[in-house]
Structure formats: structure tokens, C-alpha cells
Specification:
2 copies of one chain form a homodimer. Chain A is an alpha/beta fold. Helix content of chain A is 33%, strand content 22%. In chain A, helix 6 packs parallel to helix 10. Chains A, B: This is RNA methyltransferase.
């Protein structure tokens, strides 16, 4: 039985303020929980129903765990229909999130706000083998439960760094690609071995103060009349175009 | 002032059952409403706040309209934060939705369930100049307010046909592309001038009874470890790959 105070502690992690205070976030579903156990993340506690997989139990032998009923899981879940397992995972220290040596092109997000878009971008970038994502400080928090859910476990395999983009870009020497309205067709763009590719906010695109660092503006050609593409779709096409050249 | 019975009539259109019964669906936001007025759709009634654009008023001269307060708009809106305008639009008769002569490749959706995915696929397909989408009968209803919203107005410029896919495909002579796990890399696939491209359900992919009609299985190459791509992302990459060859 989960005590009232534990329920209220876990529910507090539904909010950013308490995630930051306690340094923990929530991952749900056996598949995602399993992927976090296998990753560099530190899984601190697992709640699972009696019907959980033996595989998860086996993997989590060294992790504190507790069996709960589905109705108890419902009390702590961030989902309308909770899944079979919920884990509390440690938010990495900033020190563990230093930028690695860039391999090929790294993605930069300037102010993505929608958690579903953010999660889908992470899932897609990981599919295409991108190892890290650099985000402006006002980009939606990656440990938001809706972001975590939409990454479908891919968050466990990609490094996310939040930083002041202006200061970051002012020190950068590599070519900077960015999606703008009047850039070169992305189909005809040569991506150099190392570089950065910037995607902007859903409504406003890339901020002017960030645009000025773009050395290679690129555009996804339009064949119909739609005014814009969803940013996760634009990110996917950019990732695909970068990889198809390799 | 909106009467209680009108409010309850409009609210009934939030549900599929009553949309079908009355042959009407809801479009919200000045931008989308304007695009529907300019399209082949028949806009039957517009509710707008005092702050609406003169452009919308001008365009809608021949359409019945009523000025309502924001709090009245909130009562009939499908959105948590309603926008500036809400229109009732006529659902086209099946006769008006006959399949056109195929130009290049046509997209087929087999059982897409998530309204956000459906809306994003429509928005993306329209960006890439696709004129029609063929959907299995169990694909989410396109007049669902969440689908309409996610299309960002693009629904007004693309024809959506629901049909029994097995019967449709059994009569088809053109090559049939479909996204499967072990197909040819989409980067290396030549898309013939006319053809069909099938995308499947979020969890289960393309049904086996539909898979058997695929003459050219294609796969989006994976560079990381993610188990799958979101279907709207896969659709976008397919659309982009088809167009980049033209």
C-alpha cells in the first residue's frame, strides 16, 4: 500500500518545480522503463503492477521496487490510462550533460514549446542516430511527462543540453545551417562533415538574434499551399536529408 | 445572444454521431475559417468576436454570420482557449469526394487512429502538393475537431476519401509502395510516375490483408536504436522523398 505522503510526493513530480527540487522525473510503461534501466540514467525506484514482465523484474534486481495495484498506479500516474510500470529517474547533473565532440551535424532547438513536438523530435533524431540535442533555455523542459512519453524511450539514448544559444553560437566555428523561408533547397544542400542545424519555435521560427549566426539558410521546398510545416516534421526531413548523404 | 438551444446544437457537433446526423463540422480560428471560405467547402454559418478581421467579414459577405462575445464563443468552442471565429461547415457528400485521376503517387492510410497524427499527415501531404488521401474505413474521422485543428487549414485544399481498401486495391493496376520493416531503402527507391503509397496504423502498421497488395515494400533507414518512427514523421519522409525526385 502506498502511503498518502508517498502518493503526494510522486504526484508533486508531475510539476516542473518539484522535479527540479527533488532532481527526479517520471518514466512510465515497461518498455520505456526497461530502456532507462539499460541506459546511463540512474533509475531510483520502480512501481509495477502484479502483471509486469519477468524481464523488467530481472533487469531491476538492484533497483528498489514495489508492487502496486492498478488503482494505486492510477493515483501516481501522469497518464489518463496508466500503463504497467512507473519509475522515478534521476535528472542528470549539468556536469554529466556536457556537449560531446560533435559527430556530423548536431541539432539545435530554439524555443520549441509543445511537449508533443519536443518528444517527437527526440524520438526522430535518435532514429536517425543523432547523439545530442542542444536547446535554448526557453525550450520546453525535457523531463515534462508529456515529452518523456512522446520520446517512446528514445530520451534514454540521447543527450540533451540546455544552454544560452547566443553565447554558444558566438564561440562556434562550424557551419551553421538553419531552416528559414528563403534558404537553399535542402535537397540541394551539401551538409559538411561537422556542423549545426537550427530549428525554431512553432509560431515564430528562429529568433532574429540567433538567425544572424546562420551561415547556410536551408528551406524545405513547398509543392502545395500550406503556410508552414509542423516543426517536428521539418526536423525529421532535415535529419533524413543529413543522413541520406552519408 | 446565443440561445440555449443553439449552444446545445453547436456543442452536439463536437461528437461524431451528431456531425453525421447534421452533416456539419466545426472549423475554428480566423485563418482556418478564411481558408475554408476560399475553398470548395460550403461554409454555412460563422460566429465571430467583435475583434475579428475586416478581411474575414469581407470574404463572408454571402455567408450568415453572427457576432458573439468571447465568453459565448467559449461555450461553443472545441478548444480550451477558443480563438476569434468558429464556422459551421458542410460535410461534402460522398459524390463530391470521388477519387480524381491520380497525379503522381497517392497516399493511402490504413487505420491511423490518433487525431493529431491524422491532422499532421494532412497538413504535410498538402505542403508537398498531394491532392488526395485515401483512407481505410477505420481511419479516424477527418471532421474530428482535433484533426481539423491539426491540419491548420490544409484540410480545405485536399480531398479525403474513405473506402474499403481491400476492394479498392483489388481493382488497382498501379505499383503499390508500402512502409514495411524489411523493404528497400526509401533513399534508393525509384517512385514511378503513378502509384500508391500505404502507411499503417500507429501500433500495428499495415494490416496483413492489405500488405499483400504491396508490390514495392520500402523502409526508412534507421541509424539509431529507436524501435519505430511516429507515423506522421514516416509519412512526411515518404512525401518528401517522392517530391525530391521530380
Amino acid at each position: 500500500m502506498l502511503s498518502k505522503s508517498r502518493i503526494s510526493f510522486i504526484k508533486s513530480l508531475h510539476q516542473k518545480k518539484f522535479r527540479n527540487e527533488h532532481g527526479l522525473f517520471i518514466v512510465e510503461g515497461i518498455k520505456s522503463v526497461t530502456e532507462f534501466i539499460r541506459s546511463d540514467y540512474e533509475v531510483q525506484f520502480i512501481f509495477h503492477t502484479p502483471h509486469t514482465s519477468p524481464n523488467l523484474l530481472n533487469l531491476s534486481r538492484n533497483i528498489k521496487a514495489e508492487e502496486v495495484s492498478l488503482s494505486e498506479l492510477e493515483k501516481i500516474s501522469t497518464l489518463t490510462s496508466p500503463k504497467d510500470a512507473l519509475a522515478l529517474v534521476k535528472i542528470p547533473d549539468d556536469g554529466e550533460r556536457q556537449l560531446s565532440e560533435q559527430d556530423s551535424v548536431s541539432l539545435i532547438l530554439d524555443g520549441i514549446q509543445d511537449p508533443g513536438n519536443m518528444g517527437t523530435i527526440i524520438r526522430t533524431a535518435e532514429w536517425f542516430g543523432f547523439k545530442q540535442l542542444i536547446c535554448s533555455l526557453d525550450t520546453v523542459e525535457v523531463y515534462n511527462p508529456k515529452v518523456v512519453q512522446a520520446t517512446m524511450g528514445s530520451l534514454s539514448r540521447i543527450k540533451i543540453l540546455y544552454t544560452d544559444l547566443e553565447s554558444f553560437l558566438s564561440k562556434n566555428q562550424a557551419p551553421v545551417y538553419g531552416t528559414l523561408l528563403n534558404g537553399r533547397s535542402i535537397y540541394k544542400t551539401d551538409f559538411l562533415a561537422k556542423g549545426l542545424l537550427i530549428l525554431g519555435n512553432e509560431g515564430n521560427g528562429i529568433r532574429p538574434e540567433i538567425q544572424k549566426y546562420i551561415t547556410h539558410p536551408v528551406t524545405i521546398p513547398r509543392f502545395g499551399e500550406a503556410e508552414s510545416l509542423n516543426v517536428a516534421i521539418a526536423a525529421a526531413i532535415c535529419c533524413s536529408e543529413i543522413r541520406r548523404r552519408e
